Amino acid sequence: MPKPSVIPRWANVAGSVATPSSGKMDVGFLPGEKPFVQYQNWLGLHAYNWFNWLNSMFNASDDLTPPTNQHVILSGTGLYKHGQRTLWIHPAAFQVTGGNGRYNNTGYMEVAANAVAHGWIPLETGKRIVSVTVYYTPNGAGTVTPGLINQNATTAGSPVALWTGTADTTGTTVESQTSGVLNHTLAANNAYAVQVGMTNAANRLFGAAVLYDQP
Asked: What is the pLDDT of residues 66-110, one digit of tens each?
């Protein structure tokens, strides 16, 4: 059902309220008893306070939205659904094969010619990769080709390309390519990586953004 629109406000402005004794709380109102107004107001007031507090935790779309600087702690081993988040893979986190690579302190990875850089994605099984965006500069030399691969550790087979971008040869400023919507759910015993092929030492890799959620 949708979130109710009415909060049952009661006795919260100068109401006549009295706290029942512990014994009265134990047994409640008895058959034939005429309840005290103050006790009824006590029940209504505290019910309102709880309703009001719970109401502040949910927005109009029924999403759980704790107040600023507060958080939710969930126990158990199950996964919980959450909206889209962005995982940033720093250029220094990429591993380079086929040629030497090093992180330049000005914020990019530079490699020798004909190198492939892999930025492994540290997300657990069940997360869903929505899209991938890779940032780079061809510098007018060679080509830069971004992509996304996965490797099945159980079968030890060849990496599978989940997305292969366009081979880019132009541009001297930071550019980007986005995979578009992938909505690929991470499978058990699989490793996933952003893959960037670079054919010239002038190419620069500035990192990658992985947009993901929990379906």
From this structure: 878 888 787 777 777 888 999 999 999 999 988 788 898 889 999
**Residue 37 contacts by C-beta under 8 Å, 6 or more apart in sequence?**
16
> What does the angle CA 136 – CA 101 – CA 114 come to, to the nearest 5 degrees?
75
Residue 125 has which token pair? 């099984």
* CA pair distance 62, 55, nearest whole angstrom: 10
Backbone angles phi, psi at 156, to 5 degrees: 55, 35
Tokens of 29: 């109102």
Q: Where are the domains of the chain?
A: 1-73, 82-214
Contacts of 9 (CB under 8 A, 6+ apart): 48, 52
CATH assignment of 82-214? Answer: 2.60.120.260
